[in-house]
Amino acid sequence: xxxxxxxxxxxxxxxxxxxxxxxxxxxxxxxxxxxxxxxxxxxxxxxxxxxxxxxxxxxxxxxxxxxxxxxxxxxxxxxxxxxxxxxxxxxxxxxxxxxxxxxxxxxxxxxxxxxxxxxxxxxxxxxxxxxxxxxxxxxxxxxxxxxxxxxxxxxxxxxxxxxxxxxxxxxxxxxxxxxxxxxxxxxxxxxxxxxxxxx
Amino acid sequence: xxxxxxxxxxxxxxxxxxxxxxxxxxxxxxxxxxxxxxxxxxxxxxxxxxxxxxxxxxxxxxxxxxxxxxxxxxxxxxxxxxxxxxxxxxxxxxxxxxxxxxxxxxxxxxxxxxxxxxxxxxxxxxxxxxxxxxxxxxxxxxxxxxxxxxxxxxxxxxxxxxxxxxxxxxxxxxxxxxxxxxxxxxxxxxxxxxxxxxx
Lengths: 199, 199
Hints:
The structure is a homodimer.
Chain A (H helix, E strand, L loop, with lengths): L2 H19 L7 H8 L3 H7 L3 H24 L6 H23 L6 H9 L4 H27 L8 H21 L4 H6 L12
Helix pairs in contact in A: 1-2, 1-4, 4-5, 4-7, 5-7, 6-7, 7-8
């Protein structure tokens, strides 16, 4: 691998791990560089600021979740509403693994950053809004198929998709605040049953 | 008013406002003292640390929300499930006012602190867990009355109360991340319809 690409990737991976397990504010550029084993000068060669790195971290998370969670959960081998339940189950298994690795339920990386930074950093807020909109779009497609298959009737598809995403985020937040991953196992099955009626 | 009580209260009010509109990490003791118009020495006379002040801030928030939101929403002048809808409506109105005052949807003060601090500060995490447990207890009482009144049948009351709290928190988080208070108006009506079946 080209050494520069490797350095950039190590900074990104390091920031990802540290910010997810702690918070945006608690992790400084020096922490990220030390954890990545790179010099501070290298950091600013690749990223103008911690914020820019964090935007790249959010993109990297989204790509991973899209590939390893959304694509697997929403695969068309099972009926549409069952895919939403599979989404919850996979997220639960992922958090269980994180708990095993770190001793903590870490919550949702997008929800965490939105919650901490939305009122303070507009580019970070806007990036999370975009990611949430993409996730909502994925749920919307599943709901459209559920309607076509007769699994659901007479719903506001857009609002229902957003309500399901809100529930997902809230369950992740409660699991984190209680440091109890089993909350996810118990509460996620209700996600696919949420309905918002057309106005 | 006794001057010391006044100083302590001003420190508390100042921390409350600053942490809620920004974040725990972004607000230092110096910021709190400057905003409150008190000397740094006074701060440590009343609070051993920013964490201790934050625990007091969480208590103050909880007391206010219990008095001005929960007590009003859950008053017994209307049927039980309608009280849950009133809870959502009052929270929506409160956030609308905060948006008018600050230009930002600030989210839930408990969810915000849990999301930022749960993995980093055990006393703050435990305090938010306790507050969430109290709020869940309030919803549980409403659900018990709803069962007695025949409004709901065959649910796991404890898990359903927690699911409703999770949904509430998730809607608050999405409203904050999108800086869009109308999400609350649109999504909260689905809260009272969430059900978790007995295992």
